[in-house]
Amino acid sequence: MLSLTWGEIEVEGVGRVRDAALFPGGGGPWDWNVTGTRHSPGIQPADVEPLLAAGATTVVLSLGQHEALDVMPETEDHLDERGIDVHVAETREAVRVYNLLADAGVRVGALLHSTC
Fold first, then answer.
1. pLDDT at 58 over 90
2. Are 60 and 87 in contact (CB under 8 A)?
3. Which residue of 8, 47, 50, 82 lies most exposed, with the fewest beta carbons within 10 A?
4. Domain CATH code at residue 71
5. Does residue 69 surpass a pLDDT of 90?
6. How far does the chain reach from its first CA to its final CA, in angstroms?
7. pTM: predicted TM-score of the whole model, two decimal places
């Protein structure tokens, strides 16, 4: 279960983080510096790899609360080629979708941006 305020995502079993990378069975902070992610061009294929490696069959990608974070077309292609269901949404909606899927037992992963 997740909760969200500006600049903070609270993840059950993990604690409070600014941005979250969640996968089946775990999660933690999402450090954009690892892959060099920026608002534009946005979430890269390398950002979703840890979610896939952990067995996610569905991925939720958030655009930020003001939808300032992009998703590279290559990222969506990368997920589509692997048969991964993808949900891209504003962060509050992304959290809602993630919670619904997780509660339903779906092997869901997510990249969630808590601000802009």
1. yes
2. yes
3. 82
4. 3.40.1230.10
5. yes
6. 22
7. 0.95
